[in-house]
Design a protein that fits this description.
binds guanosine-5'-diphosphate, alpha+beta, 5 domains, 29% helix, 16 helices, seven-stranded mixed β-sheet, binds magnesium ion
């Protein structure tokens, strides 16, 4: 391994909709290349990639996992392939984004029967944002109703004319094992014994014409962006060398998305896919250098994959494992990392010692001496390093642009079941956030609840299950409280309250007259002292204001904050001996409560501005649902094949929205939201909220 060069590395990510076969493809690659000597399966829970307890139980990938293997290109040179298998469920989209950031090529799997699914569409979109080369594998060609032509058409309609067939199946459906390869111009006859071996045969006469046409299309796709090649193409003068270079460049520059055929669980098509990746896939030396901001000069620099430069590495995932500690997965962008090196975390300015460097195959780890630029590897037990941090030489700290993770779209309130577990819960939530930046936690003082935010129900459930298995913490989750507000709509003039206790000993005396007036939305609170002639001495006035402020914080109707009120203190009286601050505070509190009820009080609720994106055919369902949630549609526009509705929705009507939208749109709808403003709660809903509150209070006081 010591002689490995950056040019000999390929970093690939496996992406696509859940269930399209990504994990089994990684299993097939490891088996074919001799890393493993058995072919694991999802059902038996023994794949290299899905090794976590929750992945085995649920039979889906949840975390990205890193694997690697060696293969040879057609010149006989060794190639190291790093593989990142990603989860297909939208809830774990952060893992896909992290994988795309550090891989140069993505193999996008598409189910040969189901065709384009939500995960196909979204993962392709992410490759576009990130600039990854894409190889399309039409998988499960061994299933009964596999329809290669139809699926390729769907793919081309969606991804564009860059999609070109490199292989087509000869006997798709049950027993599928023969493929025509139009790059090699051979028929590949696979042995269905799962070993993945095949023999090359001449293309049968009846398929020759079809193969020629596809080959022409492929070459045209390669040549189309290049005048010199195009000219040669029309003159029939393209050499094999031209084609090879064109394939390589087409893949790198996203001018070509070649289509391959696979039935990965029978290990058919895996070997040829590997061959193609080794021969035509870009190495880290071929791709555009990553940009990073220099902390010394504040300028952006290009980080070149130069082995002799100072080391720069980027942490794309952290994951803690029982009995081992926290793993940091990284890509080396420049220089090399050797075990025992002291580097700096440019985000935290802390020195980190990389004591041991590991190469990973799922949970199997192997100590390695070094990782060179372009390679993916892991270290364990860094002191204070998290996902998105750049680690580099002390003398020249740089920051690689972070992975942009999606905003959360589901929120729940969380409580420990056992008293006394509060601190433990807070610590564990914090550590989950550090491992997974798409999971957020905060304490909302407004509603006195700890809130957890994530990508959806499965995401949050996974975290709750891990709290149990990892920290033995039992928790309850509920819909968060709604931060209602209370305010008034009319004036209550000259509201009077006299607090007087004058029996035995020193008495209490405070007397205020106040006027309450509504203020425009968002103005909060205003206190006006209009006392003249010292009817209330100056020293008691702050106590009056304090009584009102405290009452407003605790609410009058349902215990929610009172907002947008002006209070004028107009008159009162005092007693030279009995008056004190407390008496005035009490008088003000009572006067405020009384006046508030007289001033036409109302409840306000938070309204969110929500953008909902979904395919057009679901317009009726989505907009109907918005109306049933008291939503107000502000506008509609189309964005490519998608429809976008912008609307105002009350927060109280949004519980479970992320699941609802997915079910309404067959998983294809997404939304984002942000707080907009407060609005009056409709009367019939308001009385329900108030009576529920009063009922609860009465129960508590029993
Ligand atoms: N028939 C058939 N089933 C497959 C093939 N590839 C994967 N599967 C099955 O499809 C299911 C999902 O596979 P998996 O690798 O977990 O998909 P992932 O979600 O994309 O990782 C598993 O039961 C696999 O055994 C294939 O080529 N043919
Ligand atoms: Mg998987």
């Amino acid at each position: 391994m010591a002689e490995l060069k950056t040019e000999q590395i390929r970093n690939i990510s496996l992406i696509g909709h859940g269930g399209s076969g990504k994990t089994i493809l990684s299993e097939g690659i490891l088996y074919t290349t001799g890393v493993t000597n058995r072919f694991g399966s999802i059902e038996e829970g023994n794949t290299v990639s899905d090794f976590n307890k929750d992945e085995i139980e649920k039979q889906i990938s949840i975390n990205l996992s890193l694997m690697n293997t060696m293969w040879k290109n057609s010149k006989g040179e060794k190639i190291k392939i790093n593989i990142i298998d990603t989860p297909g469920f939208m809830d774990f989209v952060g893992e896909v984004k992290a994988a795309l950031k550090v891989t140069d090529i993505s193999v996008l799997l598409v189910d040969a029967f189901k065709g384009i699914e939500v995960g196909t569409e979204s993962s392709f979109k992410f490759t576009k944002e990130n600039g990854n080369g894409v190889i399309i594998a039409i998988n499960k060609l061994d299933t009964e109703n596999a329809n290669f032509d139809d699926v390729v058409k769907q793919v081309r309609d969606l991804f564009g004319p860059e999609v070109a067939i490199a292989q087509f199946p000869v006997n798709q459906g049950m027993g599928f094992h023969i493929i025509v390869d139009v790059i090699k111009m051979k028929q590949l006859n696979f042995n269905p014994n799962k070993k993945g071996e095949f023999v090359e045969e001449e293309i049968p006469a009846e398929l020759k014409e079809k193969a020629d046409i596809y080959r022409q299309n492929l070459i045209e796709a390669i040549a189309s962006e290049d005048e010199v090649l195009m000219e040669k193409f029309f003159d029939g003068a393209l050499t094999e060398e031209d084609i090879r270079n064109g394939l390589k460049r087409g893949l790198l520059e996203r001018k070509l998305f070649p289509v391959f055929c696979t039935a990965v669980h029978n290990n058919i098509g895996v070997r040829t896919l590997l061959d193609f990746i080794c021969d035509y896939g870009p190495s880290p030396a071929d791709v555009k250098p990553v940009k990073a901001k220099s902390k010394n000069s504040n300028n952006y620099l290009e980080i070149k994959p130069d082995l002799n430069a100072e080391p720069v590495l980027f942490v794309f995932k952290t994951m803690s494992e029982r009995n081992v500690g926290e793993f940091s997965y990284f890509r080396v962008y420049s220089g090399k990392v050797t075990a025992g090196m002291d580097l700096i975390n440019a985000n935290t300015d802390k020195i980190e010692r990389l004591s041991t460097v590991y190469s990973l195959n799922g949970k199997e780890r192997k100590e390695i001496e070094e990782a060179i630029c372009g390679d993916l590897a892991a270290v364990v037990k860094l002191k204070d390093t998290h996902t998105n941090n750049t680690i580099c030489a002390k003398s020249n700290p740089v920051l690689i642009d972070p992975i942009i993770f999606p905003e959360p779209n589901m929120t729940l309130a969380i409580y420990p079941k056992r008293k006394g577990d509060e601190d433990k819960m807070a610590t564990s939530l914090h550590s989950f956030h550090e491992e997974d930046p798409t999971f957020l936690v905060n304490y909302d003082a407004d509603i006195s609840q700890t809130l957890i935010h994530g990508q959806g129900e499965i995401h949050l459930n996974t975290i709750i299950n891990r709290m149990k298995s990892k920290y033995n913490l039992d928790v309850d989750v509920v819909e968060p409280k709604i931060p209602y507000r209370e305010t008034i709509k009319s004036v209550a003039k000259d509201v009077e309250y006299k607090h007087k206790k004058q029996t035995g000993g020193r008495g209490q005396y405070g007397h205020v007259v106040i006027t309450l007036e509504p203020l425009p939305r968002g103005q909060g609170f205003e206190f006006v002292d209009e006392i003249v002639g010292g009817v209330i001495p100056n020293r008691f006035i702050p106590a009056v204001e304090k009584g009102i402020v405290e009452t407003m914080a605790n609410g009058v109707l349902i215990g929610s904050k009172v907002v947008d009120v002006r209070v004028r203190l107009t008159f009162g009286s005092y007693h030279t001996v009995d008056s004190d601050e407390l008496s005035f505070k009490l008088a003000a509190t009572m006067a405020f409560k009384k006046g508030f009820k007289e001033a036409n009080p109302v409840l306000l609720e938070p309204i969110y501005e929500v953008d909902i994106k979904f395919p057009e055919e679901f317009m009726g369902a989505v907009s109907g649902d918005v109306s049933s949630r008291r939503g107000r549609i502000l506008g509609m526009e189309s964005e490519g094949r998608l429809q976008v509705i912008k609307c105002h929705l009350p927060l109280s009507e949004m519980s479970g929205y992320s699941s609802r939208l997915r079910s309404l749109t067959q998983g294809r709808g997404t939304y984002s939201r942000k707080f907009s403003h407060y609005e009056e709660v409709p009367k019939e809903i308001e009385s329900k909220i108030i009576s529920e509150y009063e009922k609860r209070k009465a129960e508590e006081n029993k």
